[in-house]
Write a structure and sequence with these properties.
This protein has helices at about 15, 35-40, 80-85, 110-125, 135-145, 165, 170-185, 195-200, 205-210, 225-230, 240-245, 275-285, 300, 305-315, and strands at about 40-45, 50-55, 60-65, 90-95, 130-135, 150-160, 260-265, 285-290. By secondary structure, it is α/β, with parallel strands linked by helices. The protein has a single domain (about 15-315), classed as Rossmann fold (3-Layer(aba) Sandwich). The radius of gyration is 18 Å and the shape is globular.
Length: about 325
């Protein structure tokens, strides 16, 4: 079973969620509900396909957020306003085949996703940017740092994929793992209507069952926020992207990542095991790890205040991008939430 589903963490119970302390599920400030999101939504033509993205802020430095498998730009609702308020230009996109972005003309691949983000940065006239990616988005972000190093001045990997899928690869685990991931994340099906979704989210049992693999304590998250996380259910890019994750590896090239890197990991992630964060830290020369306690696969929306504080601290540190001294390196290693 460990070869098929490598994380030792398992979903918790609704009863356990009643005993949670700290900032789990507490909304970040500024509130995402106060943003005029339609006014912030844009479309860019990348490789003759429409790519949907949102943009907040007008800072000199830019932070680009990349969602994971089955996700969309809304995965970063709790983080975009605070990043913009801190003086950064904050951008989050729907990867090709997800959200409102069209399927690409070429087959979906990790290198293709990285190229799309790089091309979007070109289209927007951006230079070097900070890249933040969750899960498959972390895989994409790391691939960008390898293949487009001049584009990535800092890298943040949030419960990033790409380690266990390579280390545990074999035909049986790949087939069974694909079946399990499809079931728990919700790919390959048909997205429910808005009315159906509202009805389902009124039932705590459904919320716990539907989100319990992604979030540690889903019933503590606002129903409105959970609803926004489900825009890519049944996305056409889901199965091709899952194949891309399972059939690509870059372990031997992680040492080529030259920029300062922060690895953020929920300690109770059911999808990506904690050991993967340590492996990223071990293989990337200028990496450090922040563990977020009692948190699952989405620290950015499970504990947004903790996540935003760590992200902005990392972005604000005076680190020379190419040759940081030991004293200039990130100091967030294994800080507890």
């Amino acid at each position: 079973m460990r070869a098929v589903w490598p994380s030792p963490a398992r979903p918790t119970s609704r009863r356990a969620s009643r005993r949670v302390i700290g900032d789990y599920g507490v909304p970040a400030e500024p509130a995402w509900r106060d943003v005029d999101w339609p006014a912030a939504t844009r479309t860019a033509k990348i490789a003759d396909r429409d790519v949907n993205y949102v943009e907040l802020g007008e800072g000199e430095r830019t932070v680009v957020f990349i969602h994971g498998l089955g996700g969309s730009w809304q995965n970063w609702l709790e983080n975009l306003p605070s990043t913009a308020a801190a003086g950064y230009r904050a951008i989050a996109l729907d990867l090709p085949g997800f959200g409102r972005s069209e399927m690409p003309a070429e087959p979906i691949s990790m290198t293709g996703f990285a190229r799309t983000v790089d091309d979007l940065c070109d289209a927007l006239g951006l230079g070097s940017v900070a890249i933040v990616g969750n899960s498959m988005g972390g895989f994409t972000a790391a691939e960008m740092a390898i293949r487009h190093p001049d584009r990535v001045e800092r890298l943040v990997l949030v419960d990033a994929a790409g380690i266990s899928t390579a280390l545990g690869r074999n035909p049986i685990s790949e087939r069974v793992g694909k079946f399990l991931v499809t079931g728990v994340i919700g790919g390959g099906g048909t997205a429910p209507s808005e009315a159906q979704l509202r009805a389902m989210l009124r039932r705590p049992g459904f919320v716990h069952l539907a989100m319990g693999v992604v979030a540690r304590h889903p019933t503590l998250l606002s129903r409105e926020l959970i609803s926004e996380q489900m825009h890519s259910l049944g996305a056409p890019g889901f199965m091709p992207a899952l194949d891309a994750i399972l059939n690509y590896e870059f372990l031997s090239r992680l040492g080529e990542i030259a920029c300062p890197t922060l690895v953020i990991q929920g300690t109770e992630d059911v999808i990506v095991p904690l050991g993967d964060a340590y492996e990223f830290e071990r293989r990337i020369p200028k990496a450090t790890t922040l563990l977020v306690e009692d948190t699952g696969h989405g620290p950015m929306f499970e504990r947004p205040a903790t996540f935003n504080r760590a992200l902005l601290e990392f972005l604000g540190q005076e680190i020379a991008p190419h040759e940081p001294t030991e004293q200039q390196s990130p100091v967030l290693a294994r800080e507890r939430a």
